[in-house]
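Postdoc handover notes: sequence design on the structure in folder B. Input tokens:
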């Protein structure tokens, strides 16, 4: 998979994307991630990419032209990879969406700044808007990193165990069960006996029960949806 990130702060992005699991995946060739500086595509001698919004208002807007030129620079001849704009107005990122995006061969991610971007940049590129939550950040770089992490870890070979994500929170609609490691007792709290029993069937049953209980208590919205989907499937 190839991901091109259009940003005003490529060094910031590289600092994160070069570390840990994604960094190793890039080095091994399992994913290609390029950070493209939008300022390289402005015609302004001061490398400005923003201007005042028509109609007045606070703040500045990123201009359409440098964004579109940056997008075109990462497109092969005849190719129009989907452009994703990280925006608080977008559809909220979910695990299902991450799975969907992980099936792409190429995607472009746009990081906005200031008060946003000229609407024409989104219209020309047919941008899809995605949000990581109902709050506002100073720029799209952090959301873009979240998106890349969520997508890249689902690519074949990125995780040591390609099936490890199948039992994680939000996979299958439930939160993950509690987990423990050594020592068996810490500050008077013991690891549940069932996890020490070696009885795999009982362990799986306990984990299933815990996932249901945790989802019901912590995310009743997810629990109701999960139970409703099961009823509908019958």
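Designed sequence:
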């Amino acid at each position: 998979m190839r991901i091109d990130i259009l940003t005003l702060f490529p060094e910031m992005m590289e600092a994160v994307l070069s570390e840990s699991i994604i960094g190793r995946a890039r080095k091994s060739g399992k994913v290609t991630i390029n950070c493209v500086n939008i300022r390289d595509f402005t015609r302004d001698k001061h490398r400005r990419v923003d201007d005042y919004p028509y109609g007045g208002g606070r703040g500045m807007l990123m201009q359409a032209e440098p964004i579109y030129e940056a997008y075109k620079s990462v497109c092969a001849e005849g190719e129009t990879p989907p452009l994703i704009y990280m925006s608080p107005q977008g559809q909220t990122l979910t695990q299902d969406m991450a799975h969907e995006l992980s099936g792409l061969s190429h995607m472009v991610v746009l990081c906005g700044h200031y008060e946003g971007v000229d609407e024409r940049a989104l219209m020309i590129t047919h941008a899809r808007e995605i949000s990581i939550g109902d709050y506002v950040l100073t720029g799209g770089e952090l959301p873009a990193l979240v998106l890349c992490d969520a997508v890249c870890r689902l690519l074949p070979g990125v995780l040591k165990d390609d099936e490890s994500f199948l039992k994680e929170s939000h996979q299958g609609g439930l939160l993950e069960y509690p987990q423990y490691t050594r020592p068996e007792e810490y500050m008077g709290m013991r690891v549940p006996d069932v996890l020490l029993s070696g009885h795999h069937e009982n362990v799986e049953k306990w984990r299933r029960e815990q996932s249901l209980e945790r989802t019901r208590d912590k995310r009743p919205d997810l629990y109701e949806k999960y139970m409703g989907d099961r009823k509908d499937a019958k």
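Context for whoever picks this up: The mean pLDDT is 93. Don't rerun without checking with the PI first.
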